Amino acid sequence: MPRGDKSAYTDKQQRQAEHIEDSERKEGRSEEDAERIAWATVNKQSGGGKRSGSGRKSARKTAKKATKKATKKATKKAARKAGAKKATKKATKKAAKKTATKAARKTPRKAAKKATRKTARKTGARKTAKKATKKTTGRKTAKKAAKKTVRKSTRTPSSRSTAAKKATRTRARKRNGAAS
């Protein structure tokens, strides 16, 4: 069958092509272009000529191709999912590592602060010890500063616990109440 022969097309397909060709001519295209577009559209819609002996692909071959395409797509999709899972595992491991290193860096600072707080509680000079820790950054210097402030300040009303302060207030109220 020579190229461009339309004998393999059904009457319906030929009518469709004529209709498309007419509409393309109305839009201002040349006769050659309109005919080319019309037959290309019919081929796209119906897959070529439908008459017997037209040389079109058998149904089995097209079905095989379709299944091959579907399996290829499925395997690619599965590979992408597996890759995504690996990437998320890597990201979580990386994040865990980061937090561990941050925690390791923070612990010496926290230890220094805790040590100064403990010594301040024992002696009652909490506020001055906090000031000292703000000024000093290293662990050893913070301890030394806390010890110095403890030596300087002895027990004062500001260093007493809140319970002790409350107790003194109630005693004072009782005295005032009993005096009047």
List keywords for this structure.
single chain; 180 residues; mainly alpha; 0% strand
Task: Describe the protein.
This protein has 180 residues and is mainly α. Among the domains are: 38 residues, no CATH class; 73 residues, no CATH class. The protein has 6 helices and no strands. Helix 1 crosses helix 2. The longest helix has 65 residues. The radius of gyration is 45 Å and the shape is rod-shaped. The N and C termini lie far apart (129 Å). The model has no long low-confidence stretch (mean pLDDT 75).
Mean pLDDT: 75
Whole-number radius of gyration? Answer: 45 Å
The secondary-structure class comes to mainly alpha
| Count of separate DSSP helical elements | 6
Order of helices and strands: HHHHHH
Proportion of residues in extended strands: under 5%
> What is the number of strand segments?
0
Poorly predicted runs are: none
Compute the separation of the termini in Å.
Answer: 129 Å
- This entry's quaternary arrangement is single chain
**Main beta sheet strand tally, sense and closure:** none
